[in-house]
Each structure stands twice: as structure tokens, then as C-alpha cells.
Amino acid sequence: MEQVPRDLVLGQVVDKVDWKPGLFSLFVKADIGSYQAGQFTKLALQEEDGHWLKRAYSMVSSFKSSGHELEFLVVTDPTGRLSPMLEALNVGDDLYVGQTVSGFMTADELPDYAKELWLLSTGTAVGAFLSLLREPEKLNHLDRIVLVHAVRYEGDLVYQDLIKSMAEHYGEKFAYVPIVSRESINGALQGRIPTLLLDGQLQQRVGLQVEPNRSFVYLCGNPNMIHDASDALKELGLTKHLRRKPGHFASENYW
């Protein structure tokens, strides 16, 4: 093995949950120091020819509740090189983790005016928001929290038991909205997040409007969704949030 890159630390898979073929969660013991809920780091493995493969993944875990046991939600890209190797891992296998965490999609970045938090995600990007929701003490000041998870098929709606327990903990301030685009599922909206924002179906489902003076929106996932949802939010009167110029929504592409 060639020398391990200096930005990586050795970890070990301590548990694995297979949600469906090609969609799984890895639990990795690795000493990367503390991190904020909602942040991400890199997972890395070395190919037989010595080349290192790295990719950023959000932690589903929170440091406060899980410490150095990190949790990642991963989907396998059949045309990719790293994700099939990650899927082949079993408990006890080694996995390298980035020592440095990144990302500004955290509770500390919420502007003071925000009383209603919308968390709009696609696919595995929901993991970052589940991490946020695992630290309720940082969200107590909010009046409402809306978690939206858009997927293609019902089987992609992972972490249902965790979301149910979160709903019980947060009570009436919390709403969960699943969106399935390629199946008609009882209890789920059908379509795309940007369209459901513009036609008002999403707001109607939770009985809440997206308003510039109260609402803050985090977008995470498919770049096409983020682009189109950003345009939709602008049509609704919201502006992009920047540290130098506070606004109403912020985003992180998931690839």
C-alpha cells in the first residue's frame, strides 16, 4: 500500500444497514475530532493499483449523541468506482475517513429572524438533515420544522423509525413530507420539490407558507433540484443567504 494521504485517518466499519440493494448505511469508528450536525467529510479507499478514491459524504450521526461512531448514508453508483467498493464492505473492514469536516448547513448558521425551518432534500442528502434533527436543543427556538424528502421510489424513503421518533419528540412543531416521483404512494406527494413549491401543494400539506420574514430554507441533494428550487424560492420572494448578506435559503449540492 502506498502512503496514506495526510488528510485521512484509518477507521473501521462497526455496523452496516442494507436498506435495499444499492442503498445502505455504514457505521464507522474513526477519530476525526468533533463536528457540527449537518457537516460532511470524505470517505476513501485505495484501489489495487494504489490510486486513492475519495468522495464527500454527510454524517447522519451527530457528534453529541454518537461521538466517534460516524454514520453515513450511501447509494451505489453502478458506473462509479468508490461506491461499489463501499457497498462491498462488511463489519470489521477498514475504511479511511477525512480528518477535516466541512459544510455550513448547520444550526449555528441559521439567521436570528428564522422561526420556521424548511429542510428540502433528495435521495441520500436527507442524512445531513437527520443529523441536524438529532440535536433538538439547537432547534428549540424554532416554531416549526418541515423535513421534506424527495425520492424516486417508496423503498428509498429510509430511516422511517428514526423520523417517527423525531416526530414524537418535536411534537406539533415538526412535519415530515415524503415525495415520491415514480410511484403513487398513499400519504406521499408526487412530483418534484420545485413544482410542489410553486403550485403550493407542499405548503398546503403542512399548513404553512414560505415567508421571507419567518422562513429559512436549507436545500441539499441533486444539483438540478437545488437550481430549480432556488428559482422557485426566489419567485416566492426569498433571497439566497450569504454570510456577508443574510437571506432566506442556502444550499449544498450533493455531487
UniProtKB/TrEMBL annotation:
<keyword id="KW-0274">FAD</keyword>
<dbReference type="InterPro" id="IPR001433">
    <property type="entry name" value="OxRdtase_FAD/NAD-bd"/>
</dbReference>
<dbReference type="InterPro" id="IPR033892">
    <property type="entry name" value="FNR_bac"/>
</dbReference>
<protein>
    <recommendedName>
        <fullName>ferredoxin--NADP(+) reductase</fullName>
        <ecNumber>1.18.1.2</ecNumber>
    </recommendedName>
</protein>
<dbReference type="InterPro" id="IPR017927">
    <property type="entry name" value="FAD-bd_FR_type"/>
</dbReference>
<keyword id="KW-0521">NADP</keyword>
<keyword id="KW-0547">Nucleotide-binding</keyword>
<keyword id="KW-0560">Oxidoreductase</keyword>
<feature type="domain" description="FAD-binding FR-type">
    <location>
        <begin position="6"/>
        <end position="107"/>
    </location>
</feature>
<dbReference type="InterPro" id="IPR051930">
    <property type="entry name" value="FNR_type-1"/>
</dbReference>
<dbReference type="Pfam" id="PF00970">
    <property type="entry name" value="FAD_binding_6"/>
</dbReference>
<keyword id="KW-0285">Flavoprotein</keyword>
<dbReference type="InterPro" id="IPR039261">
    <property type="entry name" value="FNR_nucleotide-bd"/>
</dbReference>
<dbReference type="Pfam" id="PF00175">
    <property type="entry name" value="NAD_binding_1"/>
</dbReference>
<dbReference type="GO" id="GO:0042167">
    <property type="term" value="P:heme catabolic process"/>
</dbReference>
<dbReference type="GO" id="GO:0004324">
    <property type="term" value="F:ferredoxin-NADP+ reductase activity"/>
</dbReference>
<dbReference type="InterPro" id="IPR017938">
    <property type="entry name" value="Riboflavin_synthase-like_b-brl"/>
</dbReference>
<dbReference type="GO" id="GO:0034599">
    <property type="term" value="P:cellular response to oxidative stress"/>
</dbReference>
<dbReference type="InterPro" id="IPR008333">
    <property type="entry name" value="Cbr1-like_FAD-bd_dom"/>
</dbReference>
<comment type="similarity">
    <text>Belongs to the ferredoxin--NADP reductase type 1 family.</text>
</comment>
<dbReference type="GO" id="GO:0000166">
    <property type="term" value="F:nucleotide binding"/>
</dbReference>
